[in-house]
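User: Structure please.
Assistant: Input sequence and predicted structure:
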Amino acid sequence: MELRLLATFEKVATVLSFTRAATELGYAQSSVTAQVRSLETSLGVELFERLGSRIRLTEAGERLLPYARGMAELAEEARTAVAATADPAGTIAVGTMESLTSYRLPPLLEYFHHRYPGVRLTLRPTLGDETRQALRQGTYDVGFLMEPETEHEGLESEVLAPEPLVLVAGPAHPLAGRTELTAAEVAGAQLVGTEPGCPYRDLFERELARWSPPFMEFGTIEATKRGVAAGLGVALLPRVTVDGELAAGTLVELPWEVPFTLFTQLAWRRGKRLPAHVRLFVEQARRLVSEQRG
């Protein structure tokens, strides 16, 4: 079996689209189709079921996929091992989310930009479930998660830091002067939040579900902070995202004890052989992100 054919098969199996695989590989779609058919012919089996405009793996394709991924990883490891340059190089597809990209990752991104220019980081903005699925499929090399659970099926994960959450309001908000708040009182306020799927938004909504409070959705953290500062409501956000506003007094922390804990984590597919430049990224993420605890 040719490694090139296995690599093409692995890409099609990951994205389940000949068109998208061709785009990502830089091939014509006809070339991708021909390579997959050549592999099927050499193996004497069909690897995909064609269902109109959709495809899915056959049982034989499912069995082949982990081998194709393993061989691709070994090939990358071999290329890295025999590279003429001592400087790490390669592309790393990183799944992450807004709060981490903007507030936790800048020191890590700056470090790699200046210290390892041969390593190209591609940041993919996704939330929990989507990030985990992309890691399992091999679409992402590594992914940052902010979750209450620290074990994830099919993934290796490492906790980098606990992620404290705070309930905030504008300084003129009626709840700003309180010394204690109940969950019912919080639910009775106008709630402002990011989009559904954001882990702290979903947990916050679940905690207050018995009162079915409406949320005013602002989408991004920055828009949420501006809305709260303008007196439009209260929001639950990671402390790291509002440290500046709390220090400046444009937001105030409300006295509500958050009944759940989130952890910032770095994850990758279980059993995946990480190339040297990806291992370096994991090591530096462990060091630089963990240093920001608090």
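The radius of gyration is 23 Å.
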